[in-house]
Amino acid sequence: xxxxxxxxxxxxxxxxxxxxxxxxxxxxxxxxxxxxxxxxxxxxxxxxxxxxxxxxxxxxxxxxxxxxxxxxxxxxxxxxxxxxxxxxxxxxxxxxxxxxxxxxxxxxxxxxxxxxxxxxxxxxxxxxxxxxxxxxxxxxxxxxxxxxxxxxxxxxxxxxxxxxxxxxxxxxxxxxxxxxxxxxxxxxxxxxxxxxxxxxxxxxxxxxxxxxxxxxxxxxxxxxxxxxxxxxxxxxxxxxxxxxxxxxxxxxxxxxxxxxxxxxxxxxxxxxxxxxxxxxxxxxxxxxxxxxxxxxxxxxxxxxxxxxxxxxxxxxxxxxxxxxxxxxxxxxxxxxxxx
Length: 339
Known about the structure:
Elements lengths: L12 H18 L7 E5 L5 H8 L3 E5 L3 H9 L4 E2 L5 H7 L3 E7 L8 H11 E12 L1 H6 L16 H9 L3 E9 L5 E8 L7 H13 L4 H27 L4 E4 L5 H8 L8 E4 L16 E3 L9 E4 L5 H7 L1 H5 L3 E3 L8
């Protein structure tokens, strides 16, 4: 699945800006005076996160299994090893890093414990492991059912990440909630015997306990709410169809297929999915068989854009002001809470 993956983290300015802020924060907080420093990015994709560390003077190395993004990164001079990171790969590197980053990776891992052991081996004594992940508590609060899909094997709250890391000699010491992807945690970990948890980290843990976010009833209520959202969204799309309006999906993110297939949306209700990523030209959405078209090749805009890439809402509304002024409706099936 990941050997021929078309997702590119550098396609959106919002994500690149977020990665820049993360790199700057890590450098300012932990290594402001160090002149020689190195970062390892696990699941480095096209090297967008690495680029920002390189700009801060870090020696960089990415580990990325997918052919296309690894090739693009190396062409851009962002040193990337094409491999699935695990304990054996970590040992083959024969070195340790001041910063190890894993953004949107830990919910994809089949070799979860081998990977975590590899991070322990590769992290310098005073190093920082930066783990960025979709926050399950916020997924439920946003009713973002589409963030649950086949690539994601696991889902994390702050407490569950810390429990995993402690099994492998690592531990969280701080965490912050970011608005990226509708609500993601940027968590900071190191060797388990080195630091005490911050007040911010303790506050996340208390909030999860108070909400019941690690207990079954929290998710049963979520299930009931998304059934209601299905009825609302189908009613909207059928009204558009009955009125003769053309509806396109905006973006063809993998997560959009959960929503499309759970709601039962087919090409009669949504003519195509519009993408900016040219590597998705000629593809179709699994299950629904809605075709993907490239934005620059459209003859005309639709009457309605059904925004599947809702996690970049601010960027999308800013980019398409001209279409909004011309009366094109931008409908967001998920409206994330403010962070």
